[in-house]
Amino acid sequence: MSEGIRAPNVPAGSVLTEFLGLEQVGSTKSLRRFTRGQVLGPIDYGGTSTTSMAISLMPQTFTTQPALGYRAGGRGRLISAANPANFMEGPITAYDIATGVMTISFDNKGPSSSGTHADWVLTVAGEKGAGDLSSFLNLGDLSDKDAALNNLAGVSSRVSQSLDLNALFRVAANIRAGVVNHRPLLPLLPKYGIALLNYLKSVGTGSGGFNILVISDSTGAGVGANGNANAADYSWPSVMREDLINKLYLAHPDTLIGTNGWDSALTTADTRVVQWGGYQTSTLKSLGGSMWAAYAAGAPFKFRPKRIGNFYFRVYYATDPSFGSFKIDVNGGAPTTVTPTAAASVAFADIAGSGGGPYTLNITPLSGHTEILGVWALDSSSGPFVTIWNGSINGGKIADFVGATYPWSPLNAIGTVIQPALTIIMTGINDGGTNGTSDAADMQTVIDKCKLTGDVVIVGNFPYVVSPTTTAYTQAYRQQLHAAIAAKNGIPFISAEDYFINHAAMVAAGMSFDDFHPNEIAYSIFGKVTGGFIA
Asked: How many other CB atoms are found less than 10 A from the CB of residue 28?
Protein backbone atom coordinates (compact mmCIF):
# COMPACT_ATOMS: atom_id res chain seq x y z
CA MET A 1 0.00 0.00 0.00
CA SER A 2 1.37 3.43 -0.97
CA GLU A 3 0.36 6.97 -0.21
CA GLY A 4 1.42 9.80 -2.54
CA ILE A 5 2.46 13.19 -1.14
CA ARG A 6 2.89 16.37 -3.30
CA ALA A 7 5.93 18.40 -2.30
CA PRO A 8 4.76 21.76 -0.87
CA ASN A 9 7.20 23.83 -2.96
CA VAL A 10 6.01 22.55 -6.40
CA PRO A 11 3.67 25.02 -8.18
CA ALA A 12 0.16 23.89 -8.97
CA GLY A 13 -0.25 22.62 -12.54
CA SER A 14 3.26 21.20 -12.76
CA VAL A 15 3.65 17.68 -14.09
CA LEU A 16 5.53 15.52 -11.64
CA THR A 17 7.69 12.66 -12.83
CA GLU A 18 8.65 11.42 -9.37
CA PHE A 19 6.81 11.25 -6.02
CA LEU A 20 7.88 10.91 -2.39
CA GLY A 21 5.65 8.58 -0.36
CA LEU A 22 5.23 5.92 2.31
CA GLU A 23 5.45 2.28 1.47
CA GLN A 24 3.87 -0.18 3.95
CA VAL A 25 5.12 -3.75 4.10
CA GLY A 26 3.10 -5.66 6.67
CA SER A 27 2.78 -3.31 9.66
CA THR A 28 5.98 -1.42 8.81
CA LYS A 29 5.89 1.93 6.96
CA SER A 30 8.94 3.53 5.33
CA LEU A 31 9.57 6.68 3.24
CA ARG A 32 10.72 6.06 -0.39
CA ARG A 33 10.76 7.65 -3.89
CA PHE A 34 8.21 6.47 -6.51
CA THR A 35 8.12 7.05 -10.31
CA ARG A 36 5.14 8.65 -11.99
CA GLY A 37 4.22 5.35 -13.64
CA GLN A 38 4.28 3.49 -10.31
CA VAL A 39 1.84 5.96 -8.85
CA LEU A 40 -0.40 6.92 -11.79
CA GLY A 41 -0.11 3.82 -14.00
CA PRO A 42 1.29 3.41 -17.56
CA ILE A 43 2.23 6.58 -19.48
CA ASP A 44 -0.40 7.53 -22.07
CA TYR A 45 0.69 7.69 -25.73
CA GLY A 46 -2.70 8.64 -27.10
CA GLY A 47 -3.87 12.17 -27.60
CA THR A 48 -6.02 14.39 -29.78
CA SER A 49 -5.74 17.83 -31.32
CA THR A 50 -8.16 20.39 -32.73
CA THR A 51 -5.40 22.47 -34.33
CA SER A 52 -6.31 23.10 -37.99
CA MET A 53 -3.52 21.82 -40.28
CA ALA A 54 -3.19 20.94 -43.94
CA ILE A 55 -1.65 17.59 -44.81
CA SER A 56 1.82 18.60 -45.96
CA LEU A 57 5.35 17.26 -45.68
CA MET A 58 6.88 20.02 -43.56
CA PRO A 59 7.37 20.86 -39.86
CA GLN A 60 4.08 21.85 -38.14
CA THR A 61 3.22 22.79 -34.53
CA PHE A 62 -0.06 21.88 -32.81
CA THR A 63 -1.49 21.46 -29.30
CA THR A 64 -2.42 18.12 -27.77
CA GLN A 65 -2.85 16.95 -24.13
CA PRO A 66 -0.02 17.57 -21.65
CA ALA A 67 1.78 14.89 -19.69
CA LEU A 68 1.78 12.34 -22.56
CA GLY A 69 4.60 9.90 -23.10
CA TYR A 70 5.97 11.41 -26.32
CA ARG A 71 9.51 12.81 -26.38
CA ALA A 72 11.67 14.54 -29.01
CA GLY A 73 13.35 11.96 -31.23
CA GLY A 74 10.39 9.60 -31.40
CA ARG A 75 7.87 9.46 -34.26
CA GLY A 76 4.25 10.48 -34.16
CA ARG A 77 1.30 10.15 -36.55
CA LEU A 78 -1.75 12.40 -36.83
CA ILE A 79 -4.86 10.72 -38.24
CA SER A 80 -8.09 12.45 -39.24
CA ALA A 81 -10.91 10.94 -37.15
CA ALA A 82 -13.37 11.47 -40.01
CA ASN A 83 -11.26 9.57 -42.54
CA PRO A 84 -8.25 7.49 -41.36
CA ALA A 85 -6.91 7.50 -44.96
CA ASN A 86 -5.89 11.12 -44.30
CA PHE A 87 -2.78 11.01 -42.16
CA MET A 88 0.74 12.37 -41.89
CA GLU A 89 3.69 11.33 -39.76
CA GLY A 90 7.27 12.20 -38.92
CA PRO A 91 9.86 12.66 -36.20
CA ILE A 92 8.89 14.65 -33.11
CA THR A 93 11.26 17.59 -32.79
CA ALA A 94 9.73 19.19 -29.63
CA TYR A 95 7.07 18.44 -26.99
CA ASP A 96 6.21 20.49 -23.89
CA ILE A 97 4.71 18.00 -21.44
CA ALA A 98 3.31 20.83 -19.34
CA THR A 99 1.41 22.66 -22.10
CA GLY A 100 0.92 19.89 -24.68
CA VAL A 101 2.49 21.93 -27.52
CA MET A 102 4.18 19.54 -29.99
CA THR A 103 6.16 20.01 -33.22
CA ILE A 104 6.48 17.20 -35.80
CA SER A 105 8.57 17.41 -38.95
CA PHE A 106 6.22 15.47 -41.24
CA ASP A 107 8.05 13.38 -43.86
CA ASN A 108 5.42 10.85 -44.88
CA LYS A 109 1.71 10.78 -45.61
CA GLY A 110 -0.93 8.39 -46.87
CA PRO A 111 -1.05 7.66 -50.64
CA SER A 112 -4.39 9.49 -50.96
CA SER A 113 -4.05 11.89 -48.03
CA SER A 114 -5.09 15.50 -48.68
CA GLY A 115 -7.01 18.46 -47.30
CA THR A 116 -7.02 20.52 -44.08
CA HIS A 117 -8.31 18.90 -40.89
CA ALA A 118 -8.89 19.73 -37.21
CA ASP A 119 -10.03 16.34 -35.88
CA TRP A 120 -6.65 14.76 -35.28
CA VAL A 121 -5.97 11.58 -33.34
CA LEU A 122 -2.34 11.29 -32.20
CA THR A 123 -0.58 7.91 -32.13
CA VAL A 124 2.95 6.52 -32.11
CA ALA A 125 4.46 5.83 -35.56
CA GLY A 126 7.15 3.34 -36.44
CA GLU A 127 10.42 4.27 -38.09
CA LYS A 128 10.04 5.01 -41.80
CA GLY A 129 11.38 2.21 -44.03
CA ALA A 130 13.30 2.50 -47.31
CA GLY A 131 10.00 2.46 -49.22
CA ASP A 132 6.29 1.90 -48.93
CA LEU A 133 5.98 -1.04 -51.32
CA SER A 134 3.88 -3.96 -50.19
CA SER A 135 6.48 -6.68 -49.82
CA PHE A 136 3.98 -9.45 -49.19
CA LEU A 137 2.43 -8.76 -52.61
CA ASN A 138 5.84 -8.66 -54.39
CA LEU A 139 4.81 -5.36 -56.03
CA GLY A 140 1.65 -7.00 -57.35
CA ASP A 141 -0.36 -4.09 -55.97
CA LEU A 142 1.22 -1.61 -58.43
CA SER A 143 -1.34 -0.40 -60.95
CA ASP A 144 1.23 0.17 -63.74
CA LYS A 145 4.12 -2.23 -63.32
CA ASP A 146 5.81 -1.24 -66.60
CA ALA A 147 5.83 2.44 -65.64
CA ALA A 148 7.22 1.57 -62.20
CA LEU A 149 9.97 -0.56 -63.75
CA ASN A 150 10.87 2.25 -66.12
CA ASN A 151 11.00 4.73 -63.21
CA LEU A 152 13.41 2.39 -61.45
CA ALA A 153 15.63 2.26 -64.59
CA GLY A 154 14.71 -1.39 -65.11
CA VAL A 155 14.58 -3.16 -68.48
CA SER A 156 11.28 -4.73 -69.44
CA SER A 157 10.89 -7.98 -71.34
CA ARG A 158 7.25 -7.13 -72.16
CA VAL A 159 7.17 -3.58 -73.49
CA SER A 160 9.27 -1.43 -75.81
CA GLN A 161 11.58 1.05 -74.09
CA SER A 162 13.84 3.87 -75.20
CA LEU A 163 17.11 3.01 -73.48
CA ASP A 164 20.21 5.18 -73.60
CA LEU A 165 23.54 3.69 -74.63
CA ASN A 166 24.65 3.09 -71.03
CA ALA A 167 21.52 1.08 -70.34
CA LEU A 168 21.95 -0.86 -73.57
CA PHE A 169 25.57 -1.62 -72.69
CA ARG A 170 24.51 -2.95 -69.32
CA VAL A 171 21.90 -5.22 -70.90
CA ALA A 172 24.44 -6.50 -73.41
CA ALA A 173 27.03 -7.10 -70.71
CA ASN A 174 24.51 -9.15 -68.73
CA ILE A 175 23.68 -11.23 -71.78
CA ARG A 176 27.31 -11.82 -72.69
CA ALA A 177 28.09 -12.73 -69.08
CA GLY A 178 26.03 -15.86 -69.53
CA VAL A 179 22.47 -14.87 -68.68
CA VAL A 180 21.66 -15.81 -72.28
CA ASN A 181 24.14 -17.65 -74.46
CA HIS A 182 25.08 -16.72 -78.02
CA ARG A 183 22.42 -18.92 -79.60
CA PRO A 184 19.20 -17.55 -78.13
CA LEU A 185 17.05 -18.03 -81.24
CA LEU A 186 18.31 -21.39 -82.42
CA PRO A 187 17.26 -23.70 -83.81
CA LEU A 188 14.07 -21.64 -84.04
CA LEU A 189 13.72 -18.75 -86.48
CA PRO A 190 11.03 -16.41 -85.11
CA LYS A 191 9.84 -15.13 -88.48
CA TYR A 192 8.76 -18.61 -89.48
CA GLY A 193 8.34 -20.20 -86.07
CA ILE A 194 10.14 -23.39 -87.13
CA ALA A 195 13.68 -24.70 -87.43
CA LEU A 196 15.64 -23.87 -90.58
CA LEU A 197 15.78 -27.47 -91.80
CA ASN A 198 12.01 -27.92 -91.39
CA TYR A 199 11.42 -24.66 -93.23
CA LEU A 200 13.60 -25.74 -96.12
CA LYS A 201 11.77 -29.05 -96.35
CA SER A 202 8.44 -27.26 -96.42
CA VAL A 203 9.08 -24.85 -99.29
CA GLY A 204 9.39 -27.47 -102.02
CA THR A 205 11.39 -27.34 -105.24
CA GLY A 206 11.80 -24.31 -107.45
CA SER A 207 10.50 -21.95 -104.78
CA GLY A 208 13.64 -19.96 -104.20
CA GLY A 209 14.58 -21.66 -100.96
CA PHE A 210 16.05 -19.83 -98.02
CA ASN A 211 17.77 -16.56 -98.92
CA ILE A 212 20.45 -15.21 -96.58
CA LEU A 213 21.83 -11.69 -97.04
CA VAL A 214 25.22 -10.84 -95.54
CA ILE A 215 25.86 -7.12 -94.99
CA SER A 216 29.50 -6.63 -94.11
CA ASP A 217 32.67 -4.68 -94.80
CA SER A 218 35.81 -6.07 -96.45
CA THR A 219 36.01 -8.81 -93.82
CA GLY A 220 32.91 -10.29 -95.45
CA ALA A 221 34.24 -9.67 -98.95
CA GLY A 222 37.20 -11.88 -98.12
CA VAL A 223 40.00 -9.32 -98.33
CA GLY A 224 43.18 -11.03 -97.17
CA ALA A 225 41.97 -14.50 -98.09
CA ASN A 226 44.33 -16.45 -100.32
CA GLY A 227 46.43 -13.37 -100.99
CA ASN A 228 43.39 -11.57 -102.49
CA ALA A 229 43.19 -13.93 -105.46
CA ASN A 230 39.71 -15.46 -105.78
CA ALA A 231 39.05 -13.98 -102.34
CA ALA A 232 35.26 -14.39 -102.36
CA ASP A 233 35.52 -18.18 -102.40
CA TYR A 234 37.52 -18.00 -99.16
CA SER A 235 35.38 -15.45 -97.29
CA TRP A 236 33.43 -16.49 -94.22
CA PRO A 237 30.03 -16.10 -96.01
CA SER A 238 31.27 -18.52 -98.70
CA VAL A 239 32.44 -20.99 -96.08
CA MET A 240 29.11 -20.60 -94.29
CA ARG A 241 27.29 -21.40 -97.54
CA GLU A 242 29.32 -24.55 -98.08
CA ASP A 243 28.84 -25.57 -94.46
CA LEU A 244 25.07 -25.32 -94.85
CA ILE A 245 25.14 -27.29 -98.08
CA ASN A 246 27.27 -30.03 -96.56
CA LYS A 247 25.15 -30.31 -93.43
CA LEU A 248 21.71 -30.12 -95.02
CA TYR A 249 22.45 -31.76 -98.40
CA LEU A 250 20.74 -28.91 -100.21
CA ALA A 251 20.91 -28.14 -103.91
CA HIS A 252 22.40 -24.71 -104.45
CA PRO A 253 21.86 -22.38 -107.42
CA ASP A 254 24.74 -20.92 -109.33
CA THR A 255 25.24 -17.32 -108.24
CA LEU A 256 27.81 -14.68 -109.02
CA ILE A 257 27.15 -11.40 -107.22
CA GLY A 258 29.61 -8.53 -107.61
CA THR A 259 33.37 -8.87 -107.46
CA ASN A 260 33.86 -9.21 -103.70
CA GLY A 261 37.50 -8.24 -103.95
CA TRP A 262 38.24 -9.98 -107.25
CA ASP A 263 40.14 -8.16 -109.93
CA SER A 264 38.80 -7.87 -113.47
CA ALA A 265 40.30 -11.19 -114.52
CA LEU A 266 37.22 -13.10 -113.39
CA THR A 267 37.93 -15.91 -115.82
CA THR A 268 40.84 -16.92 -113.60
CA ALA A 269 38.78 -16.60 -110.45
CA ASP A 270 35.64 -18.50 -111.47
CA THR A 271 35.44 -21.12 -114.19
CA ARG A 272 31.77 -20.29 -114.72
CA VAL A 273 32.85 -16.95 -116.23
CA VAL A 274 33.60 -17.92 -119.82
CA GLN A 275 34.25 -14.35 -121.00
CA TRP A 276 34.62 -11.04 -119.18
CA GLY A 277 33.76 -9.12 -122.37
CA GLY A 278 33.52 -5.33 -122.35
CA TYR A 279 33.16 -5.10 -118.59
CA GLN A 280 35.55 -4.02 -115.86
CA THR A 281 35.40 -3.67 -112.10
CA SER A 282 33.22 -0.68 -111.27
CA THR A 283 33.86 2.11 -108.80
CA LEU A 284 30.19 1.87 -107.77
CA LYS A 285 29.32 -0.41 -104.87
CA SER A 286 26.32 -2.57 -104.15
CA LEU A 287 25.52 -6.24 -103.55
CA GLY A 288 28.76 -8.20 -103.66
CA GLY A 289 31.06 -5.21 -103.37
CA SER A 290 31.94 -3.49 -106.65
CA MET A 291 29.63 -3.94 -109.64
CA TRP A 292 30.76 -4.70 -113.22
CA ALA A 293 30.77 -1.67 -115.47
CA ALA A 294 30.67 -1.26 -119.25
CA TYR A 295 30.95 2.30 -120.54
CA ALA A 296 30.09 1.64 -124.20
CA ALA A 297 28.73 -1.03 -126.51
CA GLY A 298 31.01 -4.05 -126.57
CA ALA A 299 31.55 -7.76 -126.20
CA PRO A 300 29.23 -9.70 -123.88
CA PHE A 301 29.91 -11.08 -120.44
CA LYS A 302 29.39 -14.87 -120.64
CA PHE A 303 28.34 -16.99 -117.68
CA ARG A 304 27.90 -20.78 -117.80
CA PRO A 305 26.52 -22.75 -114.79
CA LYS A 306 28.55 -25.74 -113.70
CA ARG A 307 25.54 -28.03 -113.72
CA ILE A 308 23.05 -28.93 -116.46
CA GLY A 309 19.36 -28.48 -115.64
CA ASN A 310 16.20 -26.54 -116.34
CA PHE A 311 17.77 -23.16 -115.72
CA TYR A 312 16.40 -19.70 -115.81
CA PHE A 313 18.63 -16.71 -115.17
CA ARG A 314 18.07 -13.54 -113.20
CA VAL A 315 20.35 -10.60 -113.95
CA TYR A 316 20.67 -7.93 -111.25
CA TYR A 317 21.57 -4.43 -112.40
CA ALA A 318 21.71 -0.81 -111.24
CA THR A 319 19.32 1.81 -112.56
CA ASP A 320 20.05 5.49 -113.09
CA PRO A 321 18.64 8.14 -115.46
CA SER A 322 22.05 8.48 -117.11
CA PHE A 323 22.62 4.76 -117.81
CA GLY A 324 22.56 3.11 -121.25
CA SER A 325 20.93 -0.14 -122.35
CA PHE A 326 22.06 -3.78 -122.51
CA LYS A 327 20.58 -7.10 -123.61
CA ILE A 328 20.53 -10.59 -122.14
CA ASP A 329 20.10 -13.90 -123.99
CA VAL A 330 20.67 -17.61 -123.45
CA ASN A 331 22.81 -19.47 -126.01
CA GLY A 332 22.38 -16.60 -128.48
CA GLY A 333 18.57 -16.99 -128.55
CA ALA A 334 15.87 -14.31 -128.46
CA PRO A 335 17.22 -11.44 -126.36
CA THR A 336 15.61 -9.32 -123.65
CA THR A 337 16.63 -5.67 -123.89
CA VAL A 338 16.96 -3.69 -120.66
CA THR A 339 16.98 0.11 -120.46
CA PRO A 340 17.89 0.93 -116.83
CA THR A 341 17.03 4.64 -116.86
CA ALA A 342 14.70 4.67 -113.85
CA ALA A 343 15.66 6.51 -110.67
CA ALA A 344 18.85 5.24 -109.08
CA SER A 345 18.12 1.88 -107.44
CA VAL A 346 18.53 -1.87 -107.92
CA ALA A 347 16.45 -4.06 -110.27
CA PHE A 348 16.51 -7.41 -112.08
CA ALA A 349 15.51 -9.02 -115.38
CA ASP A 350 14.71 -12.71 -116.00
CA ILE A 351 15.32 -14.96 -118.99
CA ALA A 352 14.82 -18.72 -119.26
CA GLY A 353 16.64 -21.45 -121.15
CA SER A 354 14.96 -24.43 -122.79
CA GLY A 355 15.81 -28.00 -123.65
CA GLY A 356 17.79 -28.80 -120.54
CA GLY A 357 21.06 -27.06 -121.43
CA PRO A 358 23.96 -26.69 -121.18
CA TYR A 359 23.38 -22.94 -121.17
CA THR A 360 25.48 -19.84 -121.53
CA LEU A 361 24.06 -16.52 -120.38
CA ASN A 362 25.20 -13.49 -122.38
CA ILE A 363 25.01 -9.92 -121.01
CA THR A 364 25.88 -7.53 -123.84
CA PRO A 365 26.30 -3.75 -123.35
CA LEU A 366 24.49 -1.85 -126.14
CA SER A 367 25.14 1.79 -125.27
CA GLY A 368 26.31 4.18 -122.62
CA HIS A 369 26.94 3.17 -119.06
CA THR A 370 25.92 -0.32 -117.81
CA GLU A 371 26.29 -1.50 -114.22
CA ILE A 372 25.68 -5.20 -113.41
CA LEU A 373 25.42 -6.46 -109.84
CA GLY A 374 25.47 -10.16 -110.66
CA VAL A 375 23.64 -13.20 -111.99
CA TRP A 376 21.59 -15.90 -110.36
CA ALA A 377 21.05 -19.19 -112.19
CA LEU A 378 18.24 -21.29 -110.76
CA ASP A 379 17.58 -24.90 -111.66
CA SER A 380 13.82 -25.06 -111.14
CA SER A 381 13.93 -28.85 -110.82
CA SER A 382 16.12 -28.70 -107.71
CA GLY A 383 15.59 -27.45 -104.20
CA PRO A 384 14.92 -26.46 -101.61
CA PHE A 385 18.23 -24.69 -101.19
CA VAL A 386 20.13 -21.94 -99.41
CA THR A 387 21.31 -18.87 -101.31
CA ILE A 388 23.92 -16.60 -99.74
CA TRP A 389 23.70 -13.01 -101.00
CA ASN A 390 27.05 -11.56 -100.05
CA GLY A 391 26.47 -7.83 -99.75
CA SER A 392 29.92 -7.13 -98.32
CA ILE A 393 31.58 -3.91 -99.46
CA ASN A 394 35.25 -3.05 -99.19
CA GLY A 395 35.61 -0.01 -96.94
CA GLY A 396 31.92 -0.13 -96.09
CA LYS A 397 30.49 1.62 -93.04
CA ILE A 398 27.11 1.01 -91.47
CA ALA A 399 26.07 4.47 -92.67
CA ASP A 400 26.74 3.36 -96.27
CA PHE A 401 24.11 0.64 -96.04
CA VAL A 402 21.45 3.10 -94.99
CA GLY A 403 21.65 4.45 -98.54
CA ALA A 404 22.87 7.99 -98.03
CA THR A 405 26.32 7.29 -99.46
CA TYR A 406 25.15 5.64 -102.67
CA PRO A 407 21.70 4.70 -103.98
CA TRP A 408 22.64 1.14 -104.98
CA SER A 409 23.06 -0.02 -101.41
CA PRO A 410 22.04 -3.64 -100.74
CA LEU A 411 19.58 -2.19 -98.24
CA ASN A 412 17.60 -0.64 -101.08
CA ALA A 413 17.19 -4.07 -102.67
CA ILE A 414 15.50 -5.64 -99.66
CA GLY A 415 11.82 -6.34 -100.08
CA THR A 416 11.74 -5.50 -103.79
CA VAL A 417 14.70 -7.19 -105.46
CA ILE A 418 15.63 -9.74 -102.83
CA GLN A 419 13.65 -10.86 -99.80
CA PRO A 420 16.10 -12.45 -97.36
CA ALA A 421 14.69 -14.79 -94.76
CA LEU A 422 17.76 -13.98 -92.68
CA THR A 423 20.15 -10.99 -92.75
CA ILE A 424 23.54 -11.20 -91.05
CA ILE A 425 25.13 -7.83 -90.28
CA MET A 426 28.86 -7.46 -89.57
CA THR A 427 30.29 -3.94 -89.69
CA GLY A 428 32.59 -1.85 -87.59
CA ILE A 429 36.22 -1.75 -88.67
CA ASN A 430 35.69 1.37 -90.81
CA ASP A 431 33.40 3.23 -88.42
CA GLY A 432 36.03 4.74 -86.16
CA GLY A 433 35.21 8.30 -87.26
CA THR A 434 31.56 8.06 -86.19
CA ASN A 435 30.12 8.43 -82.74
CA GLY A 436 28.16 5.77 -80.95
CA THR A 437 24.82 7.55 -81.20
CA SER A 438 24.86 7.91 -85.00
CA ASP A 439 26.27 4.40 -85.41
CA ALA A 440 23.45 3.00 -83.27
CA ALA A 441 20.83 4.96 -85.23
CA ASP A 442 22.18 3.72 -88.58
CA MET A 443 22.34 0.15 -87.33
CA GLN A 444 18.73 0.41 -86.15
CA THR A 445 17.65 1.66 -89.59
CA VAL A 446 19.29 -1.35 -91.24
CA ILE A 447 17.73 -3.76 -88.74
CA ASP A 448 14.24 -2.30 -89.22
CA LYS A 449 14.52 -2.65 -93.00
CA CYS A 450 15.82 -6.22 -92.83
CA LYS A 451 13.12 -7.26 -90.38
CA LEU A 452 10.50 -6.51 -93.03
CA THR A 453 11.28 -9.82 -94.74
CA GLY A 454 12.92 -12.03 -92.12
CA ASP A 455 15.17 -12.42 -89.12
CA VAL A 456 18.40 -10.58 -88.28
CA VAL A 457 21.68 -11.59 -86.61
CA ILE A 458 24.40 -9.09 -85.64
CA VAL A 459 28.02 -10.24 -85.79
CA GLY A 460 30.80 -8.47 -83.90
CA ASN A 461 33.82 -8.02 -86.16
CA PHE A 462 37.18 -9.74 -86.01
CA PRO A 463 39.79 -8.27 -83.65
CA TYR A 464 41.99 -5.58 -85.18
CA VAL A 465 44.75 -3.24 -83.99
CA VAL A 466 44.44 -0.08 -86.09
CA SER A 467 43.49 2.86 -83.86
CA PRO A 468 40.12 4.45 -84.69
CA THR A 469 40.03 8.10 -85.66
CA THR A 470 37.74 8.76 -82.72
CA THR A 471 39.56 7.65 -79.57
CA ALA A 472 36.39 6.83 -77.66
CA TYR A 473 35.17 4.52 -80.43
CA THR A 474 37.41 1.60 -79.54
CA GLN A 475 36.96 -1.98 -80.59
CA ALA A 476 35.61 -2.84 -77.14
CA TYR A 477 33.12 0.02 -77.35
CA ARG A 478 31.97 -1.12 -80.78
CA GLN A 479 31.45 -4.68 -79.59
CA GLN A 480 29.46 -3.43 -76.60
CA LEU A 481 27.40 -1.13 -78.79
CA HIS A 482 26.44 -3.81 -81.30
CA ALA A 483 25.72 -6.35 -78.57
CA ALA A 484 23.52 -3.77 -76.86
CA ILE A 485 21.61 -3.04 -80.07
CA ALA A 486 21.08 -6.77 -80.56
CA ALA A 487 19.74 -7.06 -77.02
CA LYS A 488 17.42 -4.10 -77.55
CA ASN A 489 15.96 -5.71 -80.69
CA GLY A 490 15.78 -9.22 -79.25
CA ILE A 491 18.08 -10.67 -81.91
CA PRO A 492 21.22 -12.84 -81.60
CA PHE A 493 24.71 -11.39 -81.32
CA ILE A 494 27.74 -13.46 -82.37
CA SER A 495 31.11 -12.04 -81.40
CA ALA A 496 34.15 -12.98 -83.48
CA GLU A 497 36.20 -11.95 -80.45
CA ASP A 498 34.76 -14.90 -78.57
CA TYR A 499 36.49 -17.20 -81.04
CA PHE A 500 39.69 -15.27 -81.86
CA ILE A 501 40.28 -13.46 -78.51
CA ASN A 502 42.43 -10.61 -79.86
CA HIS A 503 44.55 -9.65 -82.83
CA ALA A 504 47.82 -10.77 -81.21
CA ALA A 505 46.36 -14.25 -80.74
CA MET A 506 45.29 -14.33 -84.39
CA VAL A 507 48.78 -13.33 -85.53
CA ALA A 508 50.39 -15.98 -83.30
CA ALA A 509 48.06 -18.62 -84.76
CA GLY A 510 48.78 -17.51 -88.35
CA MET A 511 45.23 -16.26 -88.90
CA SER A 512 45.74 -12.60 -89.82
CA PHE A 513 46.44 -11.00 -93.19
CA ASP A 514 47.15 -7.49 -91.84
CA ASP A 515 46.08 -5.20 -89.00
CA PHE A 516 42.47 -5.30 -90.17
CA HIS A 517 41.70 -8.54 -91.94
CA PRO A 518 41.73 -12.27 -91.18
CA ASN A 519 43.14 -14.68 -93.74
CA GLU A 520 41.51 -17.75 -95.27
CA ILE A 521 42.26 -19.86 -92.17
CA ALA A 522 40.31 -17.54 -89.87
CA TYR A 523 37.56 -17.12 -92.48
CA SER A 524 37.21 -20.89 -92.69
CA ILE A 525 36.79 -21.18 -88.93
CA PHE A 526 34.30 -18.35 -88.62
CA GLY A 527 32.31 -19.46 -91.66
CA LYS A 528 31.70 -22.78 -89.97
CA VAL A 529 30.81 -21.00 -86.73
CA THR A 530 28.13 -18.92 -88.44
CA GLY A 531 26.93 -21.91 -90.46
CA GLY A 532 26.57 -23.89 -87.26
CA PHE A 533 24.73 -21.01 -85.66
CA ILE A 534 22.08 -21.07 -88.38
CA ALA A 535 21.73 -24.81 -88.90
From this structure: 7
